[in-house]
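In this notation, each integer encodes one residue's backbone shape. One such record reads:

___
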Amino acid sequence: MIIRIYFLLGLLLLLNACGGGGGSSTSTTGFSQSYTTSASAGELLTYSINTAALTYSYTVTKSSYGCDVSTAACHSGSGTLVKNSDGTYSPSQSPTSKIFAAQNGLIAGNIVISLNGVNQTVPIFGVSNPITTITGLAGTYNSMSLQCTGKTYGLMTGCQTSYGTVSIATNGTFTSCNGANIAATPHTCTSTITGSIASLGNGTFQFQATTPAGAATNYFLAFTAPNGQVVGVVDFNDATVFGYGQSILSTSQSAAIADIAGTYVWNTDYGTSGTVTLNSTGTTSSGCATNLNSPWTGIATITGACNTGTGYGILAGNGVYVYTNPTTPSKPAYYELGLRIQ
């Protein structure tokens, strides 16, 4: 777990260098903001935070578990916040979790939600000012995903993580390439899916596979960082093709480790949270080494004493990172999200 944390930190640092996602965009007197948000269990929700009043609330709008029904017990939640010394907030529903929000930007954290009648701590990632046009989504993205074959979140049966690339055209068609860089010639994908993106309004898009056929509707959100890099999130609700879960995407961009050193907050799909620091030398405080732009631009590998086997992550704008490591003992579906806070 520590290993994954540090890897993520490296990613976050890189991301921050791409656009800056720390507290610099957050008002010193507090702010109130709503975010369109994806939960890694396959839920889409509206998450609101008030850092002045120290309150939060959320309402599920799309769900794999029936939480979008207004009468469902899991439909909404609210509570109070405790401000931590590192600039993060801990919600009353999950006091060991950490939330970090950038005003007019991104949010990352955890929510506690009842899935199949069992309370689960689930990482969330959201945007306050989403892209609203399909042409604004066009580009080649790196991707990091958590996908489950069934609605088993928390049990992690049939769940796996993966990394790859996604190409989106200006007409809204997309091709996903698992395990390889789709922009490279030649490239060999372990699997390929094609499909289309259509606007549902208010910055939410339908993300649906056409080959293979028979897919259900998944949902896509995206945000343009100050440097022009696009950060996206796909919310999977599809038993046929993608499964249930989440994928974080970022347009590919190279970064130098010396430019992204800092402190990051992270949350995992196993209900854990924390912070970690990446040094300008590329090492972490736990003794890991960050190898940027490997195996291709925008992907990083993490090796060393803090890691079991090899971990992988992507870099995204505005201080975002995501990290996976399928070799983590007893946690084959380990998935970590975070934002830079310093």
